[in-house]
Design goal:
- The protein is mainly alpha-helical and 171 residues long.
- It has one domain.
- It contains 6 helices and 2 strands; from the N terminus they run αβααβααα.
- A two-stranded parallel ribbon has the order 1-2.
């Protein structure tokens, strides 16, 4: 949702189109495969300047310190994340993983604390955005995001792409 909002607002998106829309994400994934190799190769990052790039939190520590970043950190409630992951596993024909929701939740909480500490110490500008708040008040969140990114985005177009029907795993 966030990548679609940024695109609608006028920010170019760094993506390769390899991962196509599906039942789990019918509006698309807005990803680039090379992001997965960020730990080994970040040489492509300077060429992506000025673009929005979707990066999972565990790869943020591999961002080279000689570049400037603004990170919009999307947050969802843990039960929503776990329910969404379970639905994806079911659709792909995989049974529930061997790790319980309680263990997964605890591990992810630890991970988020470590990433938060890393971001704080790195001096990278971060805007925390809650998924539920974007859905419930897209106008206010679009304004926050636009201000954070310098004020040049089209907020009305950002708001239009927020699709409440895709908020299927509510906490």
């Amino acid at each position: 949702m966030m990548m679609k909002m940024l695109e609608a607002g006028g920010l170019p998106i760094f993506q390769d189109g390899q991962r196509l829309a599906d039942a789990d994400n019918p509006k698309g994934y807005y990803e680039a495969e090379r992001v997965k190799d960020l730990a080994r190769d970040a040489s492509w990052l300077p060429a992506a300047a000025g673009h929005a790039i979707k990066i999972i939190s565990s790869l943020l520590t591999y961002l080279p310190s000689d570049l400037r970043y603004k990170i919009i950190f999307m947050r969802r409630e843990m039960p929503e994340i776990l329910a969404s992951q379970q639905k994806m596993l079911e659709r792909s024909g995989h049974p529930q993983g061997p790790v319980s929701d309680a263990v997964m939740s605890a591990k992810f909480s630890i991970h988020l604390r470590k990433i938060g500490k890393f971001l704080e110490q790195s001096g990278i500008e971060v805007l925390d955005v809650k998924y539920a708040e974007v859905v419930s008040d897209a106008a206010q969140q679009a304004s926050r995001i636009n201000t954070f990114l310098g004020g040049a985005l089209d907020e009305s177009r950002m708001i239009q792409v927020v699709d409440n029907t895709l908020y299927r795993q509510r906490g």
